[in-house]
Amino acid sequence: MTIPVMIPWLGEEEAEAAAEAVRSGWIAQGPRVAAFEQAFAEHLGVPHAVAVSSCTTALHLALIGAGVGPGDEVVVPSFSFIATANAVTYVGAVPVFADVDPADGNLTPATVEPLLTDRTRAVIAVDQGGVPVDLAALRALADPRGITVVEDAACAAGSTYRGAPAGRGAALAAYSFHPRKLLTTGEGGMVTCQDAAVAARLRRLREHGMSVSAAERHASAGGAAVLETYDEIGFNHRMTDIQAAIGLVQLRKLPALVERRRALAERYRALLAPLTAAGARLVADPPHGTTNQQSCWLLLPDGFPVSRGDLLGKLAAAGISARRGIMAAHLEAPYAGSARVPLPVTEHLTRNSLILPLYHSLTEQQQDQVAAALLGAAG
Ligand SMILES: Cc1ncc(COP(=O)(O)O)c(C=O)c1O
User: Which of 49, 99, 332, 361 is most buried, by the most CB atoms less than 10 A from its CB?
Assistant: First the structure.
């Protein structure tokens, strides 16, 4: 493939930061993880950030932090990467699939409300593809009922909601640093939260439930005399200092990453005007915020002359790696037949959309090549 769908923006600075962590001799969770957590919390404007191994493990901990457990129900969009629903299953709760807004692919009060029952404990509001969900609207529905809204901001580092970083307003939010995201640490994630006691518990749970972390014991004057206890069953959801060292560099690059992606997405909008004139639609900013353009997806209209599959095939033949649109969890084997209501918008979006190549180092010439291939394939 000459044009992949995504290339992370990594350079010598990240390589040097990772090498420094290696040279320091402390490569597991340690001082760099603590520094990354602090920098990320400051960037978001939230009191607590807990670094973990992925967004999937961040969601797992966030649901525990929200008090979700066996027998509870959690309303989630099916229109999301399957990890959103899986995290609910991990804590013994049931994911209840809600449909999404056709404009931005996110939950709305109208799609969530009919699914609330007296067992609903939480809603996972996804910022799908980086497009911020209308959190305040969902909280207006959930808060009076004692339901926690957890924000799945996996894709949304660098997106904004009502002028602030996406995720700031959630009781708990989860971020991904997988290389398909703007800010990457290889694998990695972060849970942010407002409550100090919840944050302290999540810090213990990510590290086997230890009352004193390994890094704290190492750094303490008491040394071997400091004994930890294990007061509940925890997990190994830790991030390494090598990842955090890379994350600190990437966080500084985030504004430039967002600016470049948004400029390229605008350029796609101009280049693909003939397609949009024919009824296709490129994902755009919602009225309540800005997207970091993590996934630049194109929705084909009904009756489009070429199927999505043929279009992807023709792009691949031209050396361009686009992707099918965002998946629908209820159409996959683990959740087949479990949807309680029809999900027509989800099914339409997942079957008729494709994700276009978009990354920091994509040149205008390459972008012209993608647009020309798309317009040619569409006839
Ligand atoms: C909405 C959403 N949630 C969760 C995840 C899982 O993230 P990770 O790969 O960091 O576990 C993803 C990954 O693409 C995602 O898009």
Answer: 99
